Amino acid sequence: xxxxxxxxxxxxxxxxxxxxIGGVIDxxxxxxxxxxxxxxxxxxxxxxxDSATRREVGELTSGGKDIEAILNVHPFHxxxxxxxxxxxxxxxxxxxxxHLERFPDLPWxxxxxxxxxxxxxxxxxxxxxxPRGVDFISDDQxxxxxxxxxxxxxxxxxxxxxxxxxxRQSLLTGLLGMGDAxxxxxxxxxxxxxxAGAARDFREWAxxxxxxxxxxxxxxxxxxxxxxxRDNQGESIHTRMVKALKKxxxxxxxxxxxxx
Length: 260
What we know:
Metallo-beta-lactamase, Chain A; 5-stranded mixed β-sheet
């Protein structure tokens, strides 16, 4: 299997990619290939596949013919959208409102990835969640907090872009006290809606998510790393998510002091 493909189960593969800030610092990105219960496949997110990865995806999907859809779940992850569509032009293309605005020439489905109707369409395989209390598409082009989070029930895997992150243990993260931890994206304070009740809405959403997805065993995060059950030597994903919410409580309280 190509070195950048993580096989999480017989139905879920996470493809790790490269994304360099300023062409220098590689913060990584990802996409996931998922086999649905009915046998067809969908991509979560877009990434320009290299030849080895494209070959393996082709072997799984009958040369791409079994890929029924590409679901772009982060409004600001747009770099690879056009190339992904060229690779698999017959797959139904779903995007957020921002995707449709940026690429009006592409054959987008009328359903957007943040729409409840799309979530219902794939409810047999996935549970979707859109964060509350934060801007889904921020006016600040540097605030990439929010995305549509996806939970694949069969493999017990969360696919997250930016919103939930996982930092591996390393010398640097150890020194900073940040390693081997699940956390919310650092732009949360800027992403919170500037209105009364926004912090409460986010807190309640995150708490509900922790309970809805409490049996999650794998977390695939875009710009950091994947935490898989087979490699997890620490606490469960659920416990880590509960702690992640506690870590941002000061930010939420600060917002409440200002906005109510």
